[in-house]
Every structure is written in structure tokens, then in C-alpha cells.
Amino acid sequence: MTSNNIFFQEIVSLIDKRIDSFREGYRQNLALLSNDREEISYLLNKHLSIKEYKGIVILYINALYMGDREIYKNVVYDLLSNYLYTQNNLDSLIVSAEGTIPLTTSLIRDNLGKKSIPFIKVLELINRFINETSRKCIFIIEEFTNLKETFDNFHQDFSQFIMLQKMCMVILASSDIESAQKMLSAELNFLFGNFEKIFLGESNFINSYIYLKEALKPLNPSPFLLSFFVDILGKNIIYYDIMAENMKKYNDSDEVKWIEIAIENSLYRKESYFYQKFIGIIDKLKEKVKDHIFLLRILLTLSNGYSRKKDILSLEICDSKILLTKLQKLVDMGIISNLGDLYKIKDELFSFWLSHIFCFEIYPNIFSYHQKRYLFREKLCETLKIFTDSFYKDKLKRVLELLNSFNDDILKLGINKLKLPYVEKTKVISYPEGNINLIIGEGKEIIFAGIKEGLVEDTDIIYYLEKASALKNKNVKRIFITLDRFTTSAKVISEQNKLLTWDNSDINNLLKIYHKPIIIDENIINF
After folding, report:
1. By C-alpha distance, which of 483, 478, 491, 480 is closest to 522?
2. What DSSP state is assigned to residue 167?
3. Distance between CA 402 and CA 241 in Å, rounded?
4. Pairing with 276, which of 32, 88, 422, 472 sits 20 to 30 Å away (CA)?
5. At a CB cut-off of 8 Å and minimum separation 6, what does 315 contact?
6. pLDDT score at 177
7. What integer best gives the mean pLDDT of the chain?
8. Number of other CB atoms surrounding residue 182 within 10 Å
9. Separation CA 8–CA 466 (nearest Å)
10. In this predicted structure, what is the pLDDT of residue 8?
11. Residues in the chain, pLDDT under 50
12. Exposure letters 237-256 (e unless 16+ CB within 10 A, then b)
């Protein structure tokens, strides 16, 4: 198994299947959505541009950086160079193609002579080419939501094209998920076939772990080191590739030192990719927001684990009304997520960088470079100690600590809302024969939870339900937790009995929300 076959395996396989179906006569348009613009470009360029789809002409534009004429000329170049299987300057390509596609090249010359080129002219060009050559096209538009600002009547023209031109498959991509969702569900919702949405950054923690392990070969790091980096890197494939490359250059037999070297070289050095990327986010705040200092203070507060509004208010950054405004501003900018009663920085590595590096960068100039570096290393040592203590702690205790973190919080996870209980004390009943623990939690409401470290089967759920039936209180919240996964039949029985279920991925998502290290057991990973 190669590293490239893990993180985006399902996404790339799905895209390949849709393209194969398109070649056979069935078209399904796609929309790739991610919070990170660079992650989209990385997928499109690393995993798609290297592929050859015989007989199909690939057209690619990035709507973020191009005006109307640039977009048109880019489509012309892709169309002619892919059709002629050669790369040359645009004028030479037009001359070379005149003998075989005169109608298309004539239209190109007419439009290039105009000062302004509306989007409908781009679509007319694709139509003309398809009609003249009978070749199928795939039209890839990165950051497509920007086209509504570049072209008048974009929605109407594009809608008609997609409905009528069945020999062109469209792949849209956007890092502005909210705007893209609105456009796909409103202006573009009536399109024939609609768009199949593919969300990047939804890889689970186990896949991330496997990816990093494979990327570091032939080195063989411990589960501790791998888990630490999965905990801070999040789910962005670019981060894993860059970090793995750095770690292979500067490895050490002492894994704590290895981690420290990798973090310092990848995140602390000002010339590094990560430092430049994250300082760019800070610069963007300064450029776009007059009172950016408030936003920076809120981000630093969130990065240090203050997630609830009332916790942030306790630091007296600003009053409640202003705080809500500032939080919403950060949400609108795509930097943080509003999870209901809690807020979270979307990019987990950016959050780590804020709390371990940037927080010392904004100290007064009386602190020298060496003093700041010392503070950074001290903070990193503290984080590693906390992670080490947690990593080797009994997993049941870690789950109990998570339950005790809930405080009647209401979380918005996607389209679902989840009300978490307030637990003051817990009682654990162990059943070693079934490798199951039952937990009774008492607080404002009673919870009755089953916890199993391994795979949960239907017999486990039935056993739990029998025990739960003894509790007559209707207000008991029933939860079954596994640090592995549920079989299909176990999930079905749980749903039929309205039992809330959390698997390894769910637990780790909650741990991340509550600023606790994730739990990964290599025993449940199957290669």
C-alpha cells in the first residue's frame, strides 16, 4: 500500500468511477468542497492532473485569479493543447489546429479580438469544439463561486449549458463551503442531474495514522509518535506530506527529541511552509479588519482551550455583544466553526501554531529571539508531557474524563444537533466476560453508557439493552461507545432502539472539540 492510496483513496476512486461512467455515456457532475483552498489544489494537481483519460479533453481554470479574458484564453489553451497532444504558445496552437477544426479556431479568433468576453462565450467555445470533433470534455473550475463576481448572468448561462450539453462533465471545487452549498442548492439546484458533493478533510483519524506511518517508511516510529502528530495535524493531506518529508530528514532515536526537531523545523522557523501559511492568515486579518487585535486575542484564547462563550468572557477581552460579533466575523472568514455552545478553530495545526509559537511572537520586543525560543520549547515540553500522560492512561478513564467535560453543551455537528449531558459523578460496572463496561452517570440527568474497546456486535447491543431495561426512569440518556467500530447489524439494532452510538471517530472528534488528545489503538488498525 502506498501513502497516496489511503487519505484520498475513496475520493480519487469515486472521481475515477464517475469519469469512467461518463465515458460510457452516464454523466454525473461533481462538486469538491474543502475548508482549505490549498488542499483542493493539491488533490486536483497531484491526484488528477497526473492521470490520463484517453479520448477526453480536460479543461481547467482557477476562478480565483483570473479575469474574463484570462479565463477564456486558459480554456482555449487547454482545449487546443489537449486536442493536439502538444504544448506551444497560444498563437502556434491556433495555427496548428486550423486545418482540422476550422470552425472552432474561427470562433477563437473572433472572441480574442474583443475587449470583454462573457462566460457564455466560453461555453459556446466548448459547444463548438464538441460539435466539430465529437470529443467529450471535462470542465474543472476551481473556486467556482468567484465566477458570479466575474461574469454577469453566470448562473443562467452555466445552467443552460449543463442541461443541454451532455458531452461535457463539470467538476466544481470551492474552499468557501457555505457559499458553494448555497449556490448548489439555489442557483444551480435545478440543473439536470444536480451535483454530487464530495467533502475533503473527512478522513478519519485511523486513516490519518496509517497515512503518516506509510509516508515515513522505511522509518518505523512508535504509535506514540504517530498519534501525537495525527493529534496536531488534523486531516489535511498537505500537512502530512510536508511533515513526513521533514521528519525523514531530521530523525532521532529519541522520539521526544525527534518530535521537538520536527516541530521546530516545520513550524517555528519563519521560512517554513507552515509559518508562512499561518502568518498569512494573521496578515489577512490585519488587512481586512480594523480592530483585528480583538480577533487575534480571541483566536489565542480558543487555541488555549477556552471554547465556550462564557469562558472567553471571563477573560474580559470585550463585552458579550461585541464578543458575539467578533466570533461571527471569524466564522464568516472561515477561520473558526460555531459548534453551538462551543467554538473551535477549524485548522488544528493553525491552532497549535497559535498556542505554541505565535503567542510568543506578539510579546513585547524586550523578549529576545533566544528568550522566545526558550518559551516555545518550554510550552512544547509541557504539551508533550500532557500528551504522554494521556496516551498511557487507561482508555476507560479517558472516556470518563471526556464525559465529565460535558456541561449541558449543545453541539452542532453538521446538520445534527447533539445535547450533551452534565455529569457530576460516575459509577463503573465491569463485565470482563464480554469486555464491556457499563457506566451510570449522575448530574442534571442520568446517563447509562456501555463502553467496549473492541468491535461492537449485535450481541453486545442486546446485552446492553437488557441491562438498560432495569432503569425505569424515562429521562435516562442511553449511549453505547466503542473505541473501535460497530458492525452493520449492531448499528441497525441501536437505531431501532433509539440508542445513541459513538465509535472511535466520534469519540476522537469530541476529544478534539474539548481539547483532549485523541485515542488511537494500533490493535484495531487493519492494513
Report:
1. 483
2. T
3. 31
4. 32
5. 301, 306
6. 83
7. 87
8. 14
9. 41
10. 63
11. 1-6, 50, 190-193, 527
12. bbbbbbbbebbeeebeeebb
For 175-209, the DSSP string reads: S-HHHHHHHHHTTTTTSTT-EEEEESS---HHHHH
**With 0-12 CB in 10 A as exposed, 13-18 as middle and 19+ as buried, what is 525?**
middle
- Residue position matching grid coordinates 452516464: 26
Nearest by Cα to 156 from 122, 108, 190: 190
DSSP 421: P
Distance CA 395, CA 142 (A): 43
Cα dist. 177→43, 130, 200 in Å?
16, 31, 11
Burial of 375 (C-beta count, 10 Å sphere; 0-12/13-18/19+): middle
Task: Determine contact, residues 111/121, Cβ cutoff 8 Å.
Answer: yes
Q: C-alpha cell of 430?
A: 465491569
Cβ neighbours around 351 below 10 Å, total: 24
State the Cα–Cα distance between residues 201 and 205, nearest whole angstrom: 11
Write out the three cell numbers for 396.
476507560
Global confidence as pTM:
0.79
d(CA 312, CA 318): 9
